[in-house]
Amino acid sequence: MFLLCGLASTAIGLLVPVAGPLGLVVRLVGIPFLVAGIALAKRSAALFEQSDTNIKTFDDPDVLVRTGPFRFSRNPMYLGFTLALGGVALLVGSLSAVIGPVFFWLLADRWYVPFEERRMTARFGPAYQQYRIMVPRWVGRPRPMQSSVS
User: Fold this and answer.
1) Exposed e or buried b per residue across 113-130, where buried means at least 16 C-beta atoms within 10 angstroms of its C-beta
2) N- to C-terminal Cα distance for the chain?
3) Domain coordinates of the chain in residue numbers?
4) Which residues contact 31 (CB under 8 A, 6 or more apart)?
5) Do the beta carbons of residue 83 and residue 40 sit within 8 Å?
6) Rounded mean pLDDT of the chain?
7) What is the pLDDT of residues 92-127, one digit of tens each?
8) Is the Cβ–Cβ distance between 20 and 14 less than 8 Å?
9) pLDDT confidence tier of residue 149, bands split at 50, 70 and 90
10) pTM of the entire structure?
11) 34-53 in b/e burial notation, b at 16+ Cβ within 10 A?
12) What are phi and psi of 2, to 5 degrees?
C-alpha cells in the first residue's frame, strides 16, 4: 500500500498539479521527511524481528513490542510510512500529491489499525489495554501509569 500510494501521489502530482510546482527549497524539505519516515519504519520493523514476532498485518501477533519508537507511538511503522509519503508529496511539489499520504493515513487509521487493535486486544488482553492507555495511537508523550489505588 505504501508503494502504491507513493506512485499514485507522484503520478497525480505530476499529471494534475494543483498549486504547483512549489519552489526548489520547499521541495527539498521533502528529503528529510522521506528519510526520517523510512528510517522510523525500518527501525520499528527491526524491533519486530529482534523480538521474533510476526510483522504481517493479517497474521496473529506473537509479542507485544513496547520498546524503541513503540514507546511514543502504537503505530510507528504506519507513522513512518505516512511521513515518507509526505516527503514524496513535498518532493513532487504539487498540492495534489498530498492525496497519497492522506489516503494512506486514512486507510491505516480507519481500517488497518482498528483491525490490528482488535487482534492485539484478543491476544494480549489487559497488557495491551494498559499499553493503549499509556501510548498514543500516532505520536506523543507516553502517559504515566494510572494507579488503581485511591
Assistant:
1) beebeebbeeeeeeebee
2) 47
3) 2-15+28-134
4) 87, 91
5) yes
6) 91
7) 999 999 999 999 999 999 999 999 999 999 999 999
8) no
9) very low
10) 0.89
11) beebbebbeebeebbeebee
12) -60, -50
